[in-house]
Structure formats: structure tokens, C-alpha cells
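> tool_call: predict_assembly(chains=two)
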Amino acid sequence: MSAYSELDAVALAAETSAGKRSAQDNVAACFAAVGQLDRELNVFLNTDRLRAEAAAIELDRRAAAGEELGALHGVPIALKANMCTVGFESNCASRILAGYKAPYTATFVERLVAAGAIPVGMTNMDEFAMGSSSENSAFGPTRNPWDKARTSGGSSAGSAAAVAAGITPIALGSDTGGSVRQPAALCGIFGFKPTYGRISRYGLIAFGSSLDQVSPFARSVRDLELVTRLMSGTDVNDSTCLDEPELQLEHGDVQGLRIGVPKEYFADGLEAGVRARCEEAIATLERLGATIVPVTLPHSQHAIAVYYVVATAEASSNLARFEGVRFGARVEGDGSLQGMFAATREAGFGPEVKRRILLGTYVLSAGYYDAWYGRALKVRTLLRRDFETAFESCDLIVGPTSPEPAFELGSKTDDPVAMYLSDVLTVPVSLAGLPAASVPCGFTDVGGVRLPVGLQIIGPHRADARVLCAARAFEAATTHARERAPAFAHGGAA
Amino acid sequence: MSSTGDTLRLRESGYVSKRTGTRWMVVIGLEVHCQLKTRTKLFCGCEYRFGAEPNSITCPKCTGQPGALPVLNREALALAVRTALALGCEVKEKSKFDRKHYFYCDLPKGYQISQYDQPYCTGGGIRLAHGKFVRLTRIHMEEDAGKAIHDRGDKTLVDLNRASVPLIESVTEADIESAAEATEYLASFKEIVQYCGASDCDMEKGTLRCDVNISVRLAGEPLRTKVEIKNLNSFRFVAAAIEYETARQVEAYESGDPAQFPVQETRLWDPNLGVTRTMRSKESAHDYRYFADPDLPPIRIDRAFIERERSSLPELPASRRERYESAMGLSAKDARVLTAERVVADFFEACVRLGGKAKDCSNWIQNELFCMVGDAEINAATFDEIQIRPHDLVSVLELIEKGVIQGNAGRTLLRAIVKTGRNAKSLVTELGLEQVQDTLQIETWCREALVGKDKIIADVKSGKPNALNALFGPVMKASGGKANAQVVRETLQRLIEEM
């Protein structure tokens, strides 16, 4: 029997289904890793071992009874704390939702559980998914398994760290402007944001509704593919869901593909090691049979501005429901209704969330709508067209996922704009609703610390399978993804 | 202030100031909310029932749980489209839902899903009896809020049963010029919407709500400041509020003091005091921060859907009234009464189709069936609940026509049918309602009635046939109401002539 933390989900499910190990063994190994690493990394906001064990016992019973087993049979999974799951506290790392237990389970969680996955806990994140370092969590930041002084990215920090540290083979995050791709890159693992709408958002606590997409983390591309496939498909509870045929990967291959490299993605300001690793990765893809073509995305310079208008506008609206009437923490204030709303929101939201609510409220206000929100929508259309035009001359686009590797905690907290810029390469893709993966492409040495670098592979609308094929080809040709972080669950032989 | 005299004066030509004698024009626009009669709510599967246990009809969606998403109810869309077609509106092939933001404890998501700049229909309107056409600006769909209850001690209670129930809000142009026009418009609107089956339009249950926008001006002037009046729970209140507000605004302008002039504001009607009072002024007006709801794709209504709804629309009341008068020979009053509710009109027409004479059916529906509503013995709160089929009424009328039973017996029979649910023929026999045709028996009763009535006999003989009526009653009474009236009359006539 291989060590729990060395296996990806596909292998773990296969071994468990074959009776080489039990689901209960997996849960025990997972919680051993939690015990070993969670305190130093701050991965989870809450875990539920008893619930996980109960689920495992039931799965083992099914296996013993010879019942049909799911593709994720007995695989522990970590969920981001903005995902509604009955029994768990989905507090979005916010004080305003402290103690909130959703009365229903998200569609995508139900689908994974139906396939045999075992939710073990809710992971840390930037409050309401607003941030790039998890420093906006009301419960302290998650530390990077490669260097505990550094961020594991954000906002889906805990889920990325759980996978990078070997606590779970797979985890879910949500990607609004890069919140899965960036932490995947910073933690040296795979992350995949499907085309907007491929996965139902029902049960994902909304930040920017037109951008949010549930996205998996994994240590192998086949896991990304499996988890994405299981979660995909129309949902009667989400009318923005795409009616897509099942995700079917052809043979992982880039032979004959035209891969576009946008010059805007290799501008000044890219950390030297990131630039070098991404250029090497492009050379690898060429060696694997792809044709490299230069492309341009002229409006990408406006992407951050557009994103911080569109996403904050939607956030100001989505977060209006947190006022203390029905759920979460309530502060009575001056005794009036409006006073209670104000006092609850004042006490419950952290500074970054307040900043974005204010921004979003402003850009939707009478008299400012046209100049801000209305104009942002127009530029968003231009950004979308940039990609459409670029994809006329190429099949995929590649570039760095993040302009720099994991930065030190505290280094950007005083400068929100510097923090916003760490999403400069992921946000355009989100605004266009396109599928994109981040794949490990090597390491850069920063002051004697070895930090992972991620390559972003972007596909046209709905070409999720093509993105994953290329990611798989790259994975097969390189060894970067097999390297383990210093803080990695060891001794997980059970 | 709300005397009939004032109402008449308003109908005719604006409002004449009591103090100065100046004639003011009244400018009114109406906003009418109707609750659509769908099985489930607008964006979730909860089945709303009026009067249910508070918060018993809720789910993650309508309570605004984090992560829950709205899904449009197609039945609501169909009813909204029907209403639009019945009111002559142009239904848009593409429209969208927007979020309208404000904070209140009965608004679970912190925004209401409504339609702002692209409503599903525009145009249309209603023609009033005297020929004026009141134009509709638009109708849009939206979800209702919940209900906040403030009168239970120091706590405010919130009931979210009503949250996300489907509404349509229709907005008229400022074409209405009096309380009478306003109430006529509302009555006609209600009738049409009810006919479509789109809403019950019951103001008491809140399924029809109306806000009034009103201003006054002098002839030839541009519009002056308008005031919105809310909390109008009956047509009577709408009329009274318009009359009160007209007088208040005129008085304010005629004071000559700009500080007294009406300001743009929302006022509440106080039904107890019969006055309007400031609710909120423009300065505190909300900035609703509308934007397209990213959770709902644009609404696409294709031609086929529109035509399907159009073809299933019932004939509307105005057209029915016209037909009842011209083709069936009913009076305008009868036509109006019969068409006021679609169930009545449909029942009436079914009776006529089964061979009932229009006038008879009309009379019996109005005189007999209407009286059964609320009758303790019948147990029907509405016309709809009376247990009778058109076939039953026609059977009764046929039995009378054929002389099998008397009119009075018909009434008894009809009630018996409703109470027992059995058919006319079996009840006639069982209750012994057949007319007595036996001429010998009738002659016996007539002879008894003539005893000692020399004065009447003399009158009849001297050419006063009406005098016979005094004898007719006692004979019918003796027969228990079952003697054939024609035979009684002829027999009395013959016996007197023979004397």
C-alpha cells in the first residue's frame, strides 16, 4: 500500500475500491496530516472528523456489500469555506457569518459526495474570497507549505495549501479573478478554472456572480479532469449553467496545436525566475509539437480596472443580504432597524470587504453608473473580443499565472493596489469567462528560498478539454509537479 | 370632502377651489401591483398560500440564503404575457431582470429582483366608458418582499412566506383626471386581469395593490410637483385619497406661500382619519442602484410563446357585454352584472349554449344564484363555490317552461339541487313539485275560493279583470303552490261567467 499523501485522487479511489485500503484508512491518514500540519499552516477554518468517519464507514460498508462505487470512492476532499455543505460552518472567513451552517448542500458538493468523496473540512480564504494572500481572512492567513513566511496565495489559500501539503489529494476553490490559479501557482500544484457556467454555482456563496466559478486543485491533471467532469452539467437550481456535453479528454497531446504567447503577459515587472520558467515551458511545448505564435491582448492593461468595478459592483449587491436579520452575527446598534444593519455590517465585515462594498456601491450609484459600471461593461466586451481575435490565430494561449512567486506575508497589506496587481494575469481570463489552468513549471530562487512557478494555459470559450489536454502533455513531459513542499504530510503510510 | 357632489365636480372638469372659485386640473397616474396566480413563487418552488403559518413556506432561495440562486418560474412568465396581451401591450422578445437595492428586514437578499430599463412589455391601455383611453406606460415582473409585523411588543417579526411571490407592476401615463376615472380604470383593469386568470385581484388579501401619483395644475400649465400616495387598500380609499390630496394641493398653492407648496414626496393614506401624511421626502429617496441580475440570463419570449398565450386568452368583458346586448338582447345593466366576474359570465354562456333563454338565465342567475353566496344553508363564499352546473339551471328552466313545475317550485328545486348535488328530475318527484293539472281538483279549490266573494265576482263581471287576482292567491295557496296557474285563471273566469 502506498502512502496516502503520495497518491492522487484517481489512484487513491482505485486502491480504496480495490480493497487495498479502506475509506476509514484514508480519513485517518488525512486527519493525521491535519494534526501534523494544520496548526503551522492554518489550512482549515473547521474540520469535522466524526462526520468524515461516519461517511467513510458508510462507504466501506458499500464496498463490503459489493455495491457500485463512485469514481472518488473514499477520497477525502477539502472545501473552501464559501461552499454550502450541510453540517459544516460555511463562514467565508468572515466574522459576519460566524457560526453560519447552511441549510442545504451545494450542487457541486452533492455531486462529488455522490461519487464517493468525503468532505473533511472548510478551508481558510480571504474574507468572502476578496484578496490574493489570505491575509484578509478574519482568522489569520494560511502559510505556504514551501515557505511558512510566505503566502499561499488567495483567495482559495487553504484549499491550495491542503493539496500542496498532502493533507487531501484534491480540494475545491472558487476562482473569481484568479483565486484558484494564483494559489495553485504559488503552491506548486495544479488548478483549473473551467469555462464560466460549466459548473453550477448553486451553493457557492457569491462574490462576483458573473465571474465566480467553482474550480478544483489537484496534484495531477487527471484529477482536475475527473473532479471537473463530476461537477459539470446543467442544474435546475442555476439558470446560468451551461448545457455542455460531458468533458471528454482526447489523448493528452499538443502536437500540431498553435500556442499563442501574448506580449502583454511578458511585460516588465515579471519576476526574473517566473519569466525564465515560463519561457522554458513554452520551449517544452514547442518541443512537444506545438507551434508558438505571437498574439496580442491590447486591452488587458485595463483588466484590473474593469475587474475592480464589475466585481465590486456585484459584491456590493451580493453582500447586501448580510445584515443580521436571518443568519450570522447580529449587533443591535442604536436599537433602530437601520442602526442594527449598520452596526452588524460595521462589526462583521473586515476592511477589504468594506472597501469593496463602498467601491461597488459607488460605481452603481445614480449619476455614476454610466461613467463607471456602464463603461466597465463596455471595456469587458472589448477584453472578450481581444481573446476572440487572438484565438483566430491560435488554439491556446500561455503565459505566467502570477507575475511573481509567493510573496512574504505582510509585504503588501498596506498597499491594496499592489495586492490587486498580483491578479493582473488571471483577471482578463475571468472577465472573458474562459477556461484556464495553472500547471507547475519549475522553481525560482528568491533570496535562497526555492519557490514554485505556475504556467497558465488559457483556452477559448468551452474548450476546457483542450486546456486540460495540453496541461496533461506538459505534466507528462516534466517533473515539476512531482516535487514536494518542505511542509508535506509524511509518515502517512496508513 | 368626499361627498358625491365633489366626485361629480371632479369627473366633469377638474376641481373648483371652494375658496377662490379657480378651476384646477388634476393629473393622476396609477401604479398597480397584481400578484400572479401561479402555483409556485417567481424564483423558487415554494407553493404560496395566503394565511399559512408564518415562515412555513420558505426555502434557501426565497429566504436569501448565501449561495442560493433564483430560477424563473415559466408559469409566471406565461401569466404576465397573457395579461399584457389582454391589455393590448407590446410584449418584448428580449427583456431582463435587474436588482433593485434597499435595506429592509423583510427583503431577504437586500435587493428585490425586478425589471428596470427593459420591462417585458410596454404600451397598451384601457378605454373608459366615456371614450377616454388611459395609456399604460409599461408592465414589469418582480418578486414580492416578505412582511414585517411591528405590532407585537417591542420586537419586529418577519414573515417570509410572501417573499418572492410573483407580481406584475403596471404603470399608467398621467392620463387620469379624477377619482371617478381612477376607480373606473381600476375596476376595468381588475376585471381584465381576472378574466385572463392571471390574478385574483383581491385587495383584502393584498393580491391587488395600488399607488397613486397625483399633482394639480392650472389649464395650459406644464406639470407641477407630483406626490405619491401609498397604502390604498380599496377602490374607495383610492377615490377618497385622490379627493383629499387634490384639495390639499390646491389649498397649498392658493396659500401663496411657497413654503406651503407641495413637495415631491411619498405620502401614506390614513383610512381612519381620511387624510394623507408624509412618509418620506425626496431627499431621503432611495438610490436603488439597479443593475442587470447576473444570476438570471436575459428573458427571451419567442413569437410562438406569445401566440400560444394569445390564442388561449378568453373573450374579454367589454366584448362580451357588447355581444350580450346586441346578440342576446340583454339590457346594459344585465350585461354588466353578468360580466363582472368571469366565472359568472362563463356559467351564463354555458347555460345559453345548453338551450337556456338568455333573459331567463340572466334573471335566474341574478335573482337566485347570487343570493346563495353567503347563504348559511348553501355554504358558498363565492359564486364559484355554489355546487351547480349550467345543465342544472337549464333543466329547471325547461321544467318550468314545459309546465311541469311552477316558478316558485323551480326556486325550491334549484336550492335542493345545490344542497344535495342531485339532478332536477329525480328531485321534482321526490319533493312532489309537479304542478296539479287535475281540472276537477282545481275546480273544487276555485269554488271554495268564490264562496262569499260576491263583491269581487261583481267587479269581474262589470269588466274589471284585475279583480280576479284577489281570488287567484287563495286558490294557489290551497294547492300548496302547485296548481297550474293558467288552468286556475281559466277556471275562475269560467265559473264567474257561469254565475
